[in-house]
Amino acid sequence: MSYHLLFPLLGFLNNEPFFPDNTYLYWSGKENIDNYELIVYYKSDVEKALFKKYEANTLLLNPNLSACYTVEPGMVYVFDMLDVADAVEKFLEGKYSTFTIKQKSIIRTFHKEFNNSLVARPNQPMHTILYPSFYLEQISEELDIPVTVLEQTGEIGRKYDKEKETLNIPIISKGDCRNVSEFSNISINF
To answer: pLDDT digits over 31-76, tens only?
Structure first.
């Protein structure tokens, strides 16, 4: 869930050459979402020159980056989410429909749901989660649950699963995230 709803709020685009293998809210008691930190894990391709270029020009330059670690296998980047603390709080409560209109737009654009009109979009899952009031009757019929029960929760998307949102992998070394590597000078166009 954090990849779908929080990661886009870090300003990454949906046309990046690399996407994380996963994002996490917790990491072995170290960084965690309780401190408004999102853990972003890249397992594959981290040794390739093209990834190093992406790392130098995108990941390491993101103003929210607070730490990076070498793990086996891959790299972990920790991003500060304090500038969207309200969204983090709502996410943790499972209150996705209460994200701001701007946050909803960023999330839907990231997921290539470009139509921002406020009408039902059944083929657009983020719209369903962010605007559940359009779908209560449909969900009620599909799940055979009274609409009144759905209206009480006000949400359709499930709350995050802490076990699935916890990264359990040891740190090999902490990196210098602000030291842009020698790969930043490689001329590769995305």
So the answer is: 889 999 999 999 877 777 888 888 988 999 999 999 999 888 889 9
Please give the average per-residue pLDDT across 78-90, as a whole number.
Answer: 96
Could you tell me which residues come within 8 angstroms of residue 9 by beta carbon, excluding any fewer than 6 positions away? 81, 84, 87, 103, 106, 107
Find out whether 67 and 75 touch, Cβ atoms under 8 Å.
no
Q: Token digits for 47?
A: 């040794």
Q: How far apart are CA 171 and CA 128, in angstroms?
A: 37
What's the whole-model pTM score? 0.84
Helix, strand or coil, per DSSP, at residue 4: helix
Quickly list DSSP for 63-110.
Answer: TTEEEEEEESSSEEEEEE-GGGHHHHHHHHHT-GGGS-HHHHHHHHHH
Q: Which distant-in-sequence residues (6+ apart) come within 8 Å of 64 by Cβ?
A: 10, 11, 79, 80, 81, 83
Q: What is the DSSP letter of 160?
A: P
What does the DSSP 8-state code read for residue 53?
H
Question: pLDDT for 129-183, tens place per residue?
Answer: 898 888 888 888 888 888 888 888 888 888 999 999 999 998 888 876 755 444 3
CA distance 45 to 160: 28
